[in-house]
Task: inverse folding
């Protein structure tokens, strides 16, 4: 392989990554290289890595824009998804964050077999 070949592959790969929305396998197949070659370029060439990261950021912006379009149209699932991740500080979460200053002991109490959950 000539010294110019990796640079040609990188340029073609960046074009394919834009076309295929950052999908690595599809882009590699189009260019005719392996994923291992892609990752070698990504880990050894800072300029290539920066260009790939920018493509991924742009794709993330696109997806976020689509999410906001769904939110604007009143889509309940999109609204809850957003609140679950961006509204945690307002209490919209499926989990509870607990910070303890001292060690705590947690016990699980098995309900009685006949207990129907009544208090």
Result:
């Amino acid at each position: 392989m000539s010294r110019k070949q990796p640079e040609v592959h990188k340029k073609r790969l960046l074009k394919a990554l834009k076309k295929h929305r950052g999908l690595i396998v599809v882009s590699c197949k189009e260019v005719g290289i392996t994923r291992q070659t892609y990752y070698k370029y990504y880990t050894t060439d800072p300029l290539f890595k920066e260009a790939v990261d920018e493509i991924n950021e742009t794709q993330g912006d696109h997806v976020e824009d689509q999410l906001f379009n769904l939110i604007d149209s009143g889509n309940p699932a999109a609204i809850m998804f957003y609140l679950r991740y961006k509204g945690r500080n307002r209490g919209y979460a499926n989990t509870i964050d607990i910070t303890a200053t001292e060690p705590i002991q947690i016990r699980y109490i098995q309900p009685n077999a006949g207990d129907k959950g009544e208090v």
Q: What stands out?
A: The chain has a mean pLDDT of 89.
